[in-house]
């Protein structure tokens, strides 16, 4: 099977050239020559956004980003979201703190897209590393475009009309007991329905939109069939060819497109890992 990242997005007129280093052929690129603390003008933002849309998750290293600068960059992508699951960072309603020293289960240590239990799951997130373990605590991302492209035509056609139910029951079970979630986060939300195959609202590409964190069942098929479709898809999504892995340093920033990726935060460290996250509001999948 051939796996290719898309390069078909039209260049916007005022885009600035960026030095980038792809992590894999299908997902992930490091942007090498940008100091975000110096401000992001329209030409730079157009180039960053285009790289983001193409590579689905982008990385910057050695950034000194205050909370305000982090939020301001997030505002270029959309409206920062209020997280009812994660703790607030330093009193900012729309900035979350992810802090762990290995004494409790790492938040995000399962393949998931963020908050697909919402009618409008987030567009994406900007995650900034303040303190990282000397080793461990990497994050992996997987391209749901590449995973879709890797299906047989028969399977694409079978999945194309299906919808799936998403809820927060597994996340609550994993994280409520150890105090990781805020009180609001442990409330049982109603399940929401999303298409199994989604079209990205900007790139127009098709992708698989089920994940093991939130997707519970396929609608309108027998339970055993629902279970085996989901298990088969989760196994398919786990192929290393669809994934990239990022080793954090203090001052690293990752920005991912939550519409077309899933991620997994490795739970393999025992030193402090302290991250700051701003999530962007998204649209209803179609
Ligand atoms: C998450 O949003 O799942 C957390 C990612 C991370 O901490 O690396």
Largest sheet: 8 strands, mixed
One letter per element, helices H and strands E, the order comes to EEHEHEEEEHHEHEEEEHEEEE
* Radius of gyration, whole Å: 18 Å
CATH class: Alpha Beta
Verbal overview:
- The radius of gyration is 18 Å and the shape is globular.
- The model is unreliable at 1-9 (pLDDT under 50).
- The chain has a single domain (7-280), classed as Clavaminate synthase-like (Double-stranded beta-helix, 4-Layer Sandwich), CATH 3.60.130.10.
- It has helices at 42-55, 67-77, 144-149, 153-160, 169-175, 223-237; strands spanning 20-22, 29-31, 57-60, 87-89, 92-100, 124-131, 139-143, 163-166, 192-195, 197-199, 206-208, 215-218, 243-246, 253-257, 261-265, 273-280.
- The chain is of the alpha+beta class and 286 residues long.
- The strands form four sheets. Strands 1-2-3-14-6-16-5-4 form an eight-stranded mixed sheet, with helices on one face. Strands 13-7-15 form a three-stranded antiparallel sheet. A three-stranded antiparallel sheet has the order 9-8-12.
- A hairpin with a 6-residue loop joins β1 (20-22) and β2.
């Amino acid at each position: 099977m051939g796996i290719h990242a898309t390069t078909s997005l039209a260049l916007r007129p005022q885009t600035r050239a960026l030095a980038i280093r792809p992590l894999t052929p299908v997902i992930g690129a490091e942007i090498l020559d940008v100091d975000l603390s110096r401000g992001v003008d329209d030409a730079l933002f157009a180039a960053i956004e285009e790289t983001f849309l193409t590579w689905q998750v982008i990385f910057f290293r050695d950034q000194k980003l205050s909370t305000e600068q982090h939020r301001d960059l997030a505002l270029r992508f959309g409206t920062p979201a209020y997280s009812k699951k994660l703790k607030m960072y330093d009193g900012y309603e729309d900035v979350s703190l992810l802090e762990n020293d290995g004494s409790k289960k790492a938040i995000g240590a399962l393949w998931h897209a963020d908050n697909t239990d919402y009618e409008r799951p987030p567009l994406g997130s900007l995650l900034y590393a303040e303190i990282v373990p000397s080793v461990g605590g990497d994050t992996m991302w997987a391209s749901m475009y590449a995973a879709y492209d890797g299906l047989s035509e028969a399977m694409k056609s079978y999945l194309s009309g299906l919808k799936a139910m998403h809820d927060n029951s597994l996340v609550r079970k994993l994280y409520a007991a150890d105090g990781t979630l805020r009180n609001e986060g442990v409330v049982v939300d109603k399940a929401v329905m999303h298409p199994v195959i989604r079209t990205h609202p900007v790139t127009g590409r098709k992708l698989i939109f089920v994940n093991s964190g939130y997707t519970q069942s396929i609608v309108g098929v027998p339970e055993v069939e629902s279970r085996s479709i989901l298990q088969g898809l989760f196994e398919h999504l786990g192929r290393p060819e669809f994934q990239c892995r990022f080793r954090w340093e203090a001052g690293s920033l990752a920005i991912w497109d939550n519409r077309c990726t899933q991620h997994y935060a490795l739970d393999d460290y025992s030193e402090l890992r302290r991250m700051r996250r701003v999530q962007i509001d998204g649209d209803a999948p179609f």
